[in-house]
Amino acid sequence: MQDRIRVTNLVCDTVIGVYDWERRVRQRVSVDLELACDLSAAAASDRVEDTVDYKQLSQRVQARVASSRYRLVETLAHDVVELCLANPRVASARVTLHKPGALRHADDVAVEVERSRDDPPARPPHRALVGVGSNVEPVRHVRYALARLHERFGAVRVSPAYRTKPVATTHGAPGGPDFLNLAVELRTDLPPSELVDWLHALEEEAGRMRGELPDAPRELDLDLLLYDEVVDPDGPPVLPHRLLAREAFALVPAADLLPEARHPTEGVPLGELRARLPERPPGVVLFEEEVLF
What we know:
Blueprint: E1 4-14, E2 27-36, H1 40-45, H2 54-67, H3 73-85, E3 92-98, E4 110-116, E5 126-134, H4 138-153, E6 157-158, E7 162-164, E8 179-188, H5 192-205, E9 221-227, H6 248-257, H7 270-275, E10 284-286
Antiparallel strand pairs: 1-2, 2-3, 3-4, 5-8, 5-9, 6-8, 7-8, 7-10
């Protein structure tokens, strides 16, 4: 296949790097895309529906890069390749990701990754979205959870963190200090039940006692919000998580991370569900004191 679509110097700001200072700032990177696709249908029809909408795809790439929190440029480049190949019209994609400030005495450092639809996946096949919360020494416990998730699952994407008010349950009025809430996207080979077992074990590592009152303060609260597009209302675990569509503390960070991911039962993207919330959801405030991971 000789047809190609190229997008060059797509500029994005993101958190990227292994040093402590790089975790506290956003750096400018640029992305070059080369997409192999059959353009004959579009040439015959002159309709955008018959080709790769490169404007829409570029916007998705910019949103993905901006929301990422990877340490390595290599991981981010692979993530962008996977995003490109999610378009069924793209047979193969070459992504070049430039990080101009990576070396003091060089104009640029770039990583180039090329994958085709027929290549085996570079990472485990299942995408899971996990909600992370804590209202007992929350910064320390959230950092602990992120480090353990990274250690177990490799590259993870992390949303911005929010301070949120405790939410009332059927067991009574909420109490205790504010929560710190965020969302994490990871890749895994574990089925949902085994992943939830691992998350529960991590909660217990952090000191949470399972079986406590639902409104009790907790060191860690880890919820499996999405697992691919699985729908299992009977569980366990119930998928998608019941809180995802109705509670701002779960939906806001999830939509930050995956705005175009479709809620499997609501049938609309998470970004659209978030847009239906009040302009400033009550009790949800962006946490800006420090970068957690």
